[in-house]
Amino acid sequence: MKYAYYPGCSAESTARDMNKSALAVVRALGMDFEEPRGWTCCGATAGHQTDRLLAVALPAANLAKVQDMKLDMVVNCAACYNRMKVANHEISAHPQIRQDVRDALDRDYDGSVKVRHLLEVLLEDIGLPAITRSLKRSLNGLKVACYYGCLLVRPPGVVKFDDPENPKSLDRLVTAMGGQSLEWPCKVECCGGGLSLSRTDVVVNLTGSILDMAVQAGADCIAVSCPMCQSNLDLRQQDINKQIGTKYQIPIVYITQLLGLCLGLDSGELGFEKLMVPATNVLKKVEANGHE
Amino acid sequence: MITIGKKQTGRALKDAVEKLSGVDLSVCFQCKKCSNGCPVAALTRSRPSEIMRQLHLGVGNELLASDLVWMCVSCETCSARCPMGIDVAAVMDALRRLAIERGAPKPEGNVPLFNRAFLKTVETFGRAYEIGLISAYKLGTGKLMNDTEKFPVMLKKGKIALLPPRGGDRQVVKRIFRKIKERKGATA
User: Fold this and answer.
1) What residues of chain B lie within 8 A of the CB of A162, using their CB?
2) What is the pLDDT of residues B126-178, one digit of tens each?
3) Which residues does B158 contact at the CB level (< 8 Å), separation at least 6?
4) Do the chains contact at B109 and A198, CB–CB below 8 Å?
5) Assigned CATH class of A2-118
């Protein structure tokens, strides 16, 4: 199965571990990912807060490249996924925007490229039975709080991803890997997103309560699928502890890192060494009980 | 409580927000579901439902100085839960664009500077360049020492890229930014 893979800017920097583990998992499952040549930034939050056309034209430049490849676009970063979906929606719903985008890109794009999140492709195209058959290790009852954040599930009418208030995609994968996915109330709460640098106080406040809930639920780790959620919960965990007097040490892992481990891959191939809060407890539990 | 002084009212803000966001503000019936789900409403002086009401009542440009305008995290919970299907998040986007256009006071944390710094790296390299963005933002705010203790660890772990991104189609991105500037010039 071949797909056009849009990594997104953070894949080359703060989320190299997300990208590395995703590509390792995809290879292990026999999928073929090809990057669109010269892919560019989706504009992220700064784009849509600044100008409506900018917010659509930046993702559309990439969607147009993928249209030429005649493939579905797979996105792993929740923020990029959201911007691609919104751009498709805006271009399809508003002829004037389509025309403005044509003028900005110097080519027409009709909003028809199918945009899918990596989780959707894993669950729908490969499917849980096939994934389960490929597993070489189990999570051995690891207690995982699955955290979806905002941009994967909202706006629901546009992204149409899972249940917007109680999504289960990550939980289904965790359960299939032999982990225990926890019931907890922060699945779709916000981490503070792009305010990490400008309003660190807001981010610390929001991520502090998310970590608190995960700890209260008994989580060994939090599984994420968005580079901003990962960085706000992992990189800021020290700041949270300092500011609110807690001693949280809870690893924030990408779901593809967990899946990679269970597919029998080495932690070094999955970027585990890049996590600020080391996932020692996770690695111990999974690697100690491998049945390779 | 919402108070609007006689001299402060102006339909212009309401009209501009409706035009930019495509939202019909009059369908809001103040159920406050947006405020109840808003993750930052506990931290702000103004709440989304109050912003909606003030707009509907004809508030003027002073609304653009509300702290929620730039503390809103664009999580879209308000839009997802509005029983009338109002895209409240689009209203917030419209308010941010108007705050810039109409010269509203700089908010705490200067998110507009962060956004400009982010987009400048995209315009230059075709892709976002985190160290370039962080440097420009820090220079602009003068908060040079914030988070500096994290950099050595991040660099050692390869958790942040030192060099600017390569490989992005810079031509198409430069064209998009140029076209947007031309449009702004034409309407200004």
Assistant:
1) none
2) 999 999 999 999 999 998 888 888 888 998 898 899 999 999 999 999 999 99
3) A16, A274
4) yes
5) mainly alpha
**Strand order, beta sheet including A252-254:** A180-181, A143-146, A221-224, A252-254
Residues of A in contact with B75 (CB under 8 A): 150, 154, 190, 193
Q: For the residues of B13-34, what is the DSSP string, one character each?
A: HHHHHHHHH---GGG-----HH
The domains of chain A are located at 2-118, 136-288
Residues 55-114 of B with CB under 8 A from A: 71, 73-77, 79-80, 87, 89, 93, 96-97, 100, 108-111, 113-114
| Percent above pLDDT 90 for chain B | 81
CATH number of A136-288: 3.40.50.11810
Residues of chain A with pLDDT under 70: 289-292
Which fold does the domain B6-101 belong to in CATH? Fumarate Reductase Iron-sulfur Protein; Chain B, domain 2 (1.10.1060)
Hey, are the CB atoms on A104 and B115 less than 8 Å from each other? Answer: no
Picking from A240, A250, A285, A249, the residue whose alpha carbon sits closest to that of residue A267 is: A285
- Average of per-residue pLDDT across B38-63: 95
Six-digit token string for B15: 């009209």
Reported ipTM: 0.95
> Do A43 and B77 lie within an 8 Å CB cutoff?
no
Query: What pLDDT score was predicted for residue B37?
Result: 97
Domain boundaries, chain B: 6-101, 111-187
